[in-house]
Amino acid sequence: MIKLAVVGAGHWGPNLINNLYTHKDAWISWVADANPSRLATVAERFPGVQTTDDAAAAIGAEDTDAVLIATPTNTHYLFAKQALEAGKHVLVEKPLAATVEEAEALCKLAAEVGRILMVGHIFVYNEASRKAKEYISEGDLGRVYYISMERTNLGPIRVDVNAAWDLAAHDISLASYWLNADPITASAVGGAWINRGVEDAVFATLRYPGDVLVHLHASWLNPKKSRGITVVGERRMLTFDDINMNEPIRVYDKKVRDERTDVPFVDTFASYRMSVRDGDIVIPKVQMGEPLKAEINHFLECIENNSRPLSAGPEGLAVVKTLDAITRSLAEGGREVQV
Ligand SMILES: NC(=O)c1ccc[n+]([C@@H]2O[C@H](COP(=O)([O-])OP(=O)(O)OC[C@H]3O[C@@H](n4cnc5c(N)ncnc54)[C@H](O)[C@@H]3O)[C@@H](O)[C@H]2O)c1
User: What percent of the chain has pLDDT over 70?
Assistant: First the structure.
């Protein structure tokens, strides 16, 4: 039995608690939250779970082996640091930390104390995104030209971080997982209408190695909940819709090519020969599991086997560096900056 403390029981924390509550290999030592009404809700929904408003005490408790952190981003560093210093393993929600310096310090500390530092990049544990990765990495789509990612909804509105840090953190981790690379540059514009200085909508473009463009639209100020992702490749195209539980992926046999040579680019002298291929649409079967359950199981396995998580500190740091570049570009009116 691995004994875990959950810090933060707001919107997301109860999902973690719910997974651990009936887990055969885990036991919840403490749930900590600064808000007493959140603790009361936890006590009602999960009878028998010990609650406290003192996060440091829950983290440092003798009966805590590992800590799950689901508090606002600007508190991740403090709690993850406390946990690692106390010799506990840590699973921290995305993004790993609020600054590059903090994320670097956590990676260094985890290595020094020899404890697991994992980041909740949930799409790495999502069966549909794993299936999409197979299509991308096995060359089915051919060379990837660009990926467009939309993550919108009306709320929840954050005050500690902007829409990119809150929402696009998922998309950056996913794009990097799919492309097996980190972005080189970022450019972004955004608008802050609700809270001064906190962008409600961010439109960012990342340039990955191999001239792959990734466009992000992250907004909590939108009438529509959308999780639409499109991958445009040289040979085929793919869409991933995380909201569509039954058929999240479609692969389109669509491309532009030279009719005679089948090459996918325009020779200016023979451009009249270009045609579009509009073939079948394939909906691959995806065994949908529960991504959060898979993420938590992976964390427990890594603790048990002392193995490196798929989304460890360095992956978390890479996302934070990209978000930092987006922030710098926002401040410079959209200039393309180095990640
Ligand atoms: N993986 C996902 O899909 C996913 C989805 C939603 C949120 N998240 C992440 O989970 C984290 C929490 O998000 P949320 O939506 O639950 O936020 P939230 O604001 O609803 O909840 C945060 C909770 O932390 C508590 N808290 C704040 N400061 C504290 C402190 N100093 N000590 C103890 N408790 C404190 C608050 O009282 C609140 O109950 C964020 O990092 C967010 O990015 C991840």
Answer: 96
